[in-house]
Specification:
Urease accessory protein UreD; globular; single chain; UreD; 11-stranded mixed sheet; cytoplasm; mainly beta; nickel insertion; nickel cation binding
């Protein structure tokens, strides 16, 4: 017999505290946390706590690198939800976080928009790969997402973000995003985006020009201080996408890409990442 998918009222594991519900909005309030620490040449995970719609699962490590998969145990976020994910990577640790499936922002009975906050902290000589699956903005949804990253001067980061505007054959909801990266007490990147109903000009020729998939890949590496990569337009990628790699005013590089759908966007990001890796060799 096939088990039914979990609902928003699905019971929680006995050892996990229940997600709180605000009387004012009736949305889900939940925070998931992971902490990685270096121990005897490998990376340990002393804290791995899921909450609300989030479940965290250990994956098989790759050498000294710890790997964690973020699972959605019920549909979320809905309008009115307040969700947060925190990851702390200690000195010398190496952590790769991925997700099992796309996150679908949905309308819901609660008033107001949904919030998805991601707070990442990476210590000196540590590395974090944050590469989740896309966020999909369904019709009627209203999601505000903010990714905050605090990096020590000797930290390394690979951060991917993908946004798909609407499911197949439907208009998009509203999706506002912000990425704030601080490196060694200085702001390296503070980027705002807004798409969908109420966002002026988002579908015009100066922004997406009809495309429905947008993504970026941020790579921070101390090695870029001495040999930063140059600006490059990705015109030889195997996808119907447009992308550009630009250096930041600091030890980092940012790829921005647009595509007609999620598949072409993924192929563009993968090609850009391979180019950056080859350029370092």
């Amino acid at each position: 017999m096939t088990a039914a998918p979990p609902s928003r009222t699905a019971p929680r594991a006995a050892d996990a505290p229940p997600a709180s519900h605000s009387p004012a909005s009736y949305g889900v309030h939940a925070t998931a946390r992971v902490r990685a620490e270096a121990a005897d040449g490998v990376t340990d995970l002393p804290l791995l706590h899921g909450d609300g719609p989030f479940a965290l699962r250990r994956l098989r490590p790759r050498g000294p690198q710890a790997r964690v998969c973020l699972l959605n145990t019920m549909s979320a976020p809905h309008n009115g939800d307040r969700l947060r994910v925190e990851a702390v990577v200690g000195p010398g640790a190496d952590l790769h976080v991925l997700s099992a499936a796309a996150t679908v922002a949905l309308p819901g009975p609660a008033p107001g928009h949904a919030v998805l906050d991601v707070a990442l902290s990476v210590a000196d000589s540590a590395r974090l790969l944050w590469l989740p699956e896309p966020v999909i903005s369904a019709t009627g949804s209203d999601l505000r997402q903010h990714i905050r990253v605090d990096l020590a001067r000797g930290a390394r980061l690979v951060l991917g973000e993908q946004q798909i505007l609407g499911r197949a054959h439907e208009p998009t909801g509203r999706l506002a995003g912000r990425v704030t990266v601080r490196h060694g007490e200085r702001t390296l990147l503070d980027q705002h985006t807004a798409y969908g109903p109420g966002a002026p000009g988002w579908d015009g020729p100066a922004v997406l020009a009809g495309y429905r998939a947008v993504g970026q890949l941020l790579v921070i590496d101390p090695a870029y201080r001495d040999r930063p990569p140059g600006t490059r337009i990705l015109d030889d990628i195997p996808a119907r996408a447009h992308g550009v790699i630009t250096p930041l005013a600091g030890p980092g590089v940012l790829l921005t890409a647009v595509a007609p759908d999620a598949g072409d966007l993924r192929r563009c990001l993968d090609a850009a990442l391979r180019h950056l890796i080859d350029a370092e060799r």
